[in-house]
């Protein structure tokens, strides 16, 4: 089940976001109490994005347990009327629920929601190419690896990492079940 994030999700989200293995490729470090407060404030507020930079945050429940969270962030507004035409997807799941297809099922539903609810032309995901689980998820979602940029992301603790960009166009989503 997908639903918006509530303040009482703090313990469940805090449990996996405090794990350095989970946050290894995320843009934030393993969360302490203050970091979790900042993240929860952002997730709980993410219910109805309408302009660039705003997010929709969804909790993913399985049998009444929160197993992960998803984010849709309205991004660059290159459309003629300046409405957001691109959105970025993000996902974080509890390791104890990995490898069962929950992220695939939930992200598929979020993609359907995004293209149905917003006049988006394109969805994208950006990730560290070493994040193979996330790359495989993008591929299962029918996204295309469009770019691999070199050393464009300042790593925590120093150094630079690459970025892989995956994309899914509206017309590809519309023809997703045609078998082509
Ligand atoms: C990225 C992330 C969400 C992927 O999680 P995941 O468990 O691999 O993804 P799913 O829940 O969709 O499970 C898919 C896996 O289960 C298997 N699986 C089992 N049953 C399945 C089913 N019914 N449907 C789809 N896959 C299934 C798949 O084969 C796949 O395994 P594989 O990748 O070894 O081939 C997870 O690794 C994560 O949260 N990482 C930490 C946060 C992070 O890095 N986020 C991304 C930042 S860009």
Write up this protein.
By secondary structure, the chain is α+β, with helices and mostly antiparallel strands. It has a domain at 2-123: Gcn5-related N-acetyltransferase (GNAT) (Aminopeptidase, 3-Layer(aba) Sandwich), CATH 3.40.630.30. The chain is 31% helix and 31% strand. The chain is built from six helices and seven strands; from the N terminus they run E-H-H-H-E-E-E-H-E-H-E-E-H. A seven-stranded mixed sheet has the order 1-2-3-4-5-7-6, sandwiched between helices. Strand 2 and strand 3 form a beta hairpin. Helix 1 (10-17) crosses helix 3. Bound molecules: coenzyme A (COA). The site of coenzyme A has 19 residues, from strand 4, helix 4 and helix 5.
Summarize this structure briefly.
This protein has helices at about 10-15, 20-25, 35-45, 100-115, 130-140, 170-175, and strands at about 1-5, 55-60, 65-75, 85-95, 120-125, 145-155, 160-170. It is an alpha+beta fold and about 180 residues long.
């Amino acid at each position: 089940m997908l639903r918006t994030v509530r303040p009482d999700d703090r313990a469940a989200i805090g449990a996996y976001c405090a794990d350095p293995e989970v946050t290894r490729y995320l843009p934030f470090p393993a969360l302490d109490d203050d970091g979790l407060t900042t993240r929860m404030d952002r997730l709980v507020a993410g219910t109805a994005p309408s302009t660039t930079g705003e997010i929709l945050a969804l909790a993913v429940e399985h049998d009444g347990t929160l197993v992960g969270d998803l984010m849709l962030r309205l991004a660059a507004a290159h459309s003629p009327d300046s409405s957001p035409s691109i959105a970025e997807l993000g996902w974080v799941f509890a390791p104890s629920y990995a490898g069962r297809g929950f992220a695939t099922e939930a992200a598929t539903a979020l993609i359907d929601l995004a293209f149905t609810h917003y006049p988006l032309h394109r969805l994208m995901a950006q990730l560290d190419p070493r994040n193979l689980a996330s790359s495989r998820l993008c591929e299962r979602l029918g996204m295309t690896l469009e770019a691999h940029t070199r050393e464009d992301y300042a790593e925590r603790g120093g150094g630079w990492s690459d970025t892989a960009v995956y994309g899914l166009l509206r017309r590809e989503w519309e023809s997703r079940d045609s078998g082509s």
